[in-house]
Amino acid sequence: MGIPTLLRNILGMHHPDSPTDKVLKVNIYGPAGLRTMLRIIFTLTHTRTAEAYAVHELLFPGDPVTPCEPPNVRHSSEAPGRDIMCDEDGFWRNIASGHSPRGEVIVQAGPILHRDPCIGYIFHEPPNEPPFPEPRKIVVLGDTSSAAALTPLISSTPGRVSLLVHESTDAYIPSNVDASLAARRSPELVKQKCLERGHSTPLQAGQCAGQWDAERLVLNHIGSRFPAPTLTDPRSKKYRTAIMREIERQATEAWHATPSVLPSYGEEAPEQIQQRQAIAASDFLSVHIPARGTEPPSEHKGRRDDNSRRGSNWDKRRRMNR
């Protein structure tokens, strides 16, 4: 539901002297019905923008097709989009591409399990032959209780998973962190409620990272019961940071304990694997993914080097946001 507000900010507000033929600025890829949703919200809120967006719907056989022609069926801020049918394996391959300093970036997509239609996206560089670096690959998942259906698509795209962004909506918090939370909710109850709602725990996120042999794991969509650490209240800051560390710990342990189901892209030193640490996302977090073989010895690959520094990223992020 945040898409309309985001579009209004990016596309700018319409002015009487704005050109009738709007420039296409934003391309949106999503499930069937997304075009209709945006048209209705823009119409009901009397939204008109200076530039245009287009919605490209990722369709299964039998999904309704929302037409873009004739022009009067579209919103005045909308450009024609594509209707992209899945292949025989149920995936949407090569749906978009762009360019990075190292060349092309290709986008693939596939369905993941949730209460409603939800999609996981893969961004990867083209395959390279030695001596060029191994292609990097980023996997960004929507809401999900299981992304296992995406495994064949992960396997068929070049390179290992450089970064996995996986939701972690809820978590069991043990008594050593919060005795009252531990008394009210068991690990089994937390997992059950998560699955019922189509969401994941840190354990499931870590297992997914292990199965796909991800080099980095960032946890997002953390539930509102676990607010981010604040600057204003030292007691609240300490407690909330402890919660985030616990969520990261659970995901990291599951990550290390889960064997990969994908073909190997070469052995990594055991000490490198054991240094991997999940990171709970916060606003303005950035993760550096250098080309393989080019990282300096101090490159942390998005992980924390030791337990004494595990809370430091939260402090750095807060200082950046002052």
**Spatial separation of the terminal alpha carbons:** 27 Å
Beta content comes to 15-25%
Total individual domains: 2
Shape: globular
Order of helices and strands: HEHEEEEEEEHEHHHEHHEH
Give the low-confidence spans: 296-322
User: What number is the mean pLDDT?
Assistant: 88
Q: Please state the structural category.
A: alpha/beta
Text of the CATH class of the largest domain: Alpha Beta
The helix content, as a percent range, equals 25-40%
Widest β-sheet, arrangement of strands = 5-6-7-8-9-10-11
CATH topology of the largest domain: Metallo-beta-lactamase, Chain A
Number of strands: 11
Number of helices: 9
The rounded Rg comes to: 21 Å
Observed structural traits:
322 residues; alpha/beta; Metallo-beta-lactamase, Chain A; 2 domains; 7-stranded mixed sheet; 4-stranded parallel sheet; 9 helices; 11 strands; 28% helix; globular; disordered C terminus
